[in-house]
Amino acid sequence: MSHLYEWCVCLQAMVACYPGNGAGYVKHVDNPNHDGRRLTCIYYLNKSWNPKEHGGVLRIFPEGKPYVADIKPLFDRLLIFWSDRRNPHEVQPSYAFRYAITVWYFDAEERAQAKKRFRDRTASTGQQGSSSS
């Protein structure tokens, strides 16, 4: 694993809004295919959030542990965790508008290798397109 100083500055960000109709997100890991993501950082923007009424809890299933971690999406909370298989997670159903900003920090070398794999794959199949940076 590379050292922190070899990581890129954040290269990818996402703003998420769950519409409050029971929407959630299935259990997943952010970097299942070695795309370079190392850290997932989530910042919550939900004022007056009541998890019992509004739901929307982020559930983390730490690899090899017999427990889960339930994180309430409370206003001004910042959550940081490893993006790989160590931390599968899901968003449980939300019953109010739920807002979050996610930023991923990348490992420069792994990201470069992922882009090369993408270019090689698309070149060999004759597809056109570009990899996001």
How would you characterize the overall build of this protein?
The protein has 133 residues and is α+β, with helices and mostly antiparallel strands. The protein is built from 2 helices and 8 strands. It has helices at 51-54, 108-125, and strands at residues 12-18, 23-28, 37-44, 58-60, 69-71, 78-82, 89-94, 98-106. A 4-stranded antiparallel sheet has the order 1-8-3-6. A 4-stranded antiparallel sheet has the order 2-7-4-5, with no helix packed on it. This is hypoxia-inducible factor-proline dioxygenase. Keywords: Dioxygenase, Iron, Metal-binding, Oxidoreductase, Vitamin C. Its cofactor is L-ascorbate.
Quick synopsis:
The protein has 133 residues and is an alpha+beta fold.
Secondary-structure blueprint:
Blueprint: E1 12-18, E2 23-28, E3 37-44, H1 51-54, E4 58-60, E5 69-71, E6 78-82, E7 89-94, E8 98-106, H2 108-125
Antiparallel strand pairs: 1-8, 2-7, 3-6, 3-8, 4-5, 4-7
| Average of pLDDT | 89
Widest sheet: strand order?
Answer: 1-8-3-6
The outline comes out as elongated
Which spans have pLDDT < 50 for at least 5 consecutive residues?
none
Could you name the key traits of this structure?
133 residues; alpha+beta; 4-stranded antiparallel sheet; elongated; vitamin c; metal-binding; iron; dioxygenase; Pro_4_hyd_alph_FE2OG_OXY
